[in-house]
Amino acid sequence: MNIKLQQSQTNQKSEIKVTGSKSETNRLLLLQALFSDISLENTSNSDDSEVMIKALIQNPEPEIIDIHHAGTAMRFLTAYFATQENREVIITGSPRMKERPIKILVEALQQLGATISYEENQGFPPIKIKGKKLSKNKVSLPADVSSQYISALLLIAPKLENGLELNLEGKITSIPYIKMTLALLNEIGVETSFDGNEINVKQLITHNSKLITVESDWSSASYFYSIVALSEIGTEIKLSSYKENSLQGDSVLAEIYTDLGVETRFENNQITLSKSGNTNLQSVILDLNQAPDIAQTIAVTCFGLGIGCHLTGLHTLKIKETDRLEALRIELQKLGADITVTNDSLTLKISSVTERNVAINTYNDHRMAMAFAPLALITDIVINDAEVVSKSFPDFWNDLKQIGFKVEKL
To answer: Is 6 marked as binding a ligand?
Structure first.
């Protein structure tokens, strides 16, 4: 399904309910599978979370689990099934997923005693896992890898009979996601410590039943920040449910978008985004090492505002659903952008939209579809394969209609 977004303005005041964070939900779903007396509210309705739920349901063996494009599910489930005694599974995914590396996590689990083998190409899914009791408790891995590898190990740690001592070698990437995982562990009663490059997680032996409400997704909020930034002064969008002391690294949006003319107010588990003025910046310089998932949104916002940006710390974007940096370069150039990318950075020079009715390819990447949508405030665009948003935000197109966008299925 392709969608045409016709140039329009947003309603002056709108309100949107955003479902729970995919990142928090998927972590908590795994913990719920390990500790059955955890209950969850406001969970994500994303494809990735649905994949997690389906995979964690006990099925007859042997079993093949297809996680499609869900990278988080691939990493978390690899660790989970490695600990499930006498259970054998094969985890596979989409063609793109079979190109995304899993070797670092597999080797870390093997250090703990796991039995995992590759079904096709060494270092890549699909993988076969023979679940067993893991008695070793010390593991080391590079610190600059995807935080999902690290979180996958931390999430199973409370079930290991000796807990886990994790040594991260080098400069750590995406610390907020690691801290999110540790905070969720703490919330269910797990004792943890994070000192320099050493993380310790104790075994959880006794615990009480717990109800956890998942905070809404800040990555999803980023697209509304972009919309408000590109809208008329006075535009307001209320989003729920959000916390001022969020566990999510992408909550840095509130600070970043202040310089792009968007004010954030917190009240009663809601945030109100308001266009308070026009930016007087010529260019934005940001290190997004701790929040790489919002890079696409910020780059498109800057292009829509006619200002430049230099974004660094983006090395993990090369192995996401697509090579996100290259995809951004190709699609923004179609619209008239002057943009260059490297393996870990993006530079957009001051340029403006010069083309209309451009079709944006999404590369099986939900964030490509949603990051480009706000440009409909400036020009008519077509989003190809628009249903890809279901990976993290199934209600996205309906929510755009609700705030005044003209959305037409092609």
So the answer is: no
Please say whether the dihedral angle defined by the alpha carbons of residues 57, 59, 61 and 64, taken in this order, is positive or negative: negative
CATH class of 3-18+216-409: alpha beta
Q: Where in the sequence numbering do the catalytic residues fall?
A: 293
159 is in an annotated binding site: no
The answer to whether the 3-18+216-409 and 22-213 domains have the same CATH topology is yes
Is 320 flagged in the annotation as binding? yes
Q: Contact 139/110 with Cβ under 8 angstroms?
A: no
Question: Is 293 annotated as a binding-site member?
Answer: yes
In angstroms, the CA 257 to CA 228 distance is: 10
Question: Among 330, 352, 351, which residue's Cα sits nearest to residue 341?
Answer: 330
Q: Cβ distance 210 to 188 under 8 Å?
A: yes
329 among annotated binding-site residues: no
How deeply is 310 buried, as exposed, middle or buried, from its count of CB atoms within 10 A (0-12, 13-18, 19+)?
middle
The average pLDDT across 209-229 equals 96
Cα 94 from Cα 60, distance rounded (Å): 23
Give domain 22-213's CATH architecture. Answer: Alpha-beta prism (3.65)
Report, as an integer, the average pLDDT of 298-315.
97
| DSSP calls for 42-102 | S---SHHHHHHHHHHS---SSEEEE-TT-HHHHHHHHHHHHTSTT-EEEEE--TTGGGS--
Q: What is the pLDDT of residues 91-134, one digit of tens each?
A: 999 999 999 999 999 999 999 999 999 999 999 999 999 999 99
Helical spans, DSSP H, in 83-206: 103-111, 147-156, 175-187
Mean pLDDT of 147-153: 95
Q: Domain residue spans in the chain?
A: 3-18+216-409, 22-213
Is residue 145 within a helix (H) or strand (E), and if so which, with residue range?
none
Residue labelled with tokens 């007396």:
37
Query: Any known ligand binding at 147?
Result: yes
How many Cβ atoms sit within 10 Å of the Cβ of residue 331?
23
CB distance 275 to 262 below 8 Å: yes
Cα first-last separation, the chain: 7
pTM value? 0.85
Query: pLDDT tens digits for 239-295?
Result: 998 999 999 999 999 999 999 999 999 999 899 999 999 988 999 999 999 899 999
Are 128 and 82 a contacting pair, CB within 8 Å? no
